[in-house]
Recover the amino acids of this structure.
């Protein structure tokens, strides 16, 4: 049916008005102009503890450039991704957490597409392995393992994300991390497969010449007399000191909280306080100003746990990475716990005793 001239004109005017208002004209599909650069920007901000300046450094851009990408993506999605306090980003909104998980997954898939090959030889196996861990494992346990892994899989890229145990758990659960390595948070669910990797024995570190070095049997009463340097409470090593004292009805004198073991050692060496650390952080220590004392009778040793999604089909290089974390354990036992373990065992490039 033909329209009258004035009807056609009014329809065009409505369409133009809709476009000016940001609306799509009727009959047009809604599209989103989301870029990988925007998704990577969100990821870098979160991975750098919501520091826009550090994210800008990682992205080789400016802080205003990062802020512009964030606002542009939020506008495109119609949601607030970040919780703000003034001009600062302090966390993710509920919708932001979902957007972040999806962004991580999309970036991983995009990278996998770029590196897709059809060759079956080991030297041609490519991919990215996302591992969530804490600083203590990345710094003191994983370097030699990383070298062995890359010798076996030279074209696989390892990506280590430094997170708290809770963040690692949720990353594995949501699929943004392939493997987690940390102590487990207190609350976990059946969707996560947890495998014991190794014990993390603790020791007390003090400055050389400290009076505690002359005491045969150290007690909490003795420890309560001294100032303490501890990890951030989000990490197991940070919570353990306060929890152990509280179980005795006492409070430690905490003077400094820091994020990683190397900073803890630096402050203890300066005489600022004493600290409890995992023994692995002291294995290669050469600073003559530091001494360690066995306090295993006071502070329990947690287990480092490997976590994967119970329903996740691992790639062979992920399987072999886990095997390197479990030296001496039969690979058949690991394979039996994974949904595609039989195939992974047949494809593994590691020897049975690796």
């Amino acid at each position: 049916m033909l329209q009258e001239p004035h009807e056609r004109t009014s329809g065009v005017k409505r369409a133009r008005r809709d476009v000016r208002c940001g609306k799509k004209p009727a009959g047009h599909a809604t599209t989103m102009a989301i870029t990988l650069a925007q998704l990577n920007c969100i990821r870098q901000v979160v991975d750098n503890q919501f520091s826009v300046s550090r994210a800008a450094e990682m992205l080789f851009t400016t802080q205003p450039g990062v802020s512009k990408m964030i606002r542009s993506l939020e506008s495109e999605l119609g949601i607030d991704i970040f919780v703000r306090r003034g001009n600062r980003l302090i966390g993710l909104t509920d919708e932001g957490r979902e957007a972040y998980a999806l962004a991580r997954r999309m970036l991983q898939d995009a990278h996998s597409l770029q590196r897709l090959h059809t060759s079956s030889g080991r030297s041609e196996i490519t991919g990215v392995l996302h591992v969530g861990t804490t600083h203590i494992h990345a710094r003191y346990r994983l370097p030699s393992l990383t070298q062995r892994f890359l010798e076996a899989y030279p074209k696989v890229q390892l990506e280590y994300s430094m997170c708290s145990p809770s963040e690692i758990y949720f990353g594995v659960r949501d699929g943004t991390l392939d493997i987690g390595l940390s102590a487990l948070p207190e609350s976990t669910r059946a969707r996560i497969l947890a495998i014991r990797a190794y014990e993390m024995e603790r020791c007390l570190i003090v400055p050389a010449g400290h009076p505690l070095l002359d005491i045969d049997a150290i007690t909490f009463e003795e420890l309560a007399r001294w100032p303490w340097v501890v990890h951030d409470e989000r990490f197991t090593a940070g919570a353990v000191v306060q929890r152990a004292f509280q179980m005795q009805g006492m409070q430690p004198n905490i003077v400094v909280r820091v994020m990683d073991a190397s900073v803890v050692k630096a402050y203890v060496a300066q005489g600022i306080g004493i600290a409890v650390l995992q023994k692995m952080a002291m294995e290669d220590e050469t600073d003559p100003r530091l001494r360690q004392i066995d306090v295993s009778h006071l502070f329990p040793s947690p287990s480092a746990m490997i976590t994967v999604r119970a329903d996740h089909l691992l790639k062979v290089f992920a399987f072999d990475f886990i095997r390197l974390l479990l030296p001496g354990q039969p690979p058949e036992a690991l394979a039996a716990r994974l949904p595609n373990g039989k195939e992974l065992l047949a494809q593994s490039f590691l020897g049975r005793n690796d």
Notes: The chain has three domains: 36-95, 115-199+303-347, 202-294. The first strand starts at residue 82 and ends at 85. Confidence is low (pLDDT under 50) at residues 1-29, 115-120. The domain at 36-95 is CATH 1.10.10.10 (Arc Repressor Mutant, subunit A).
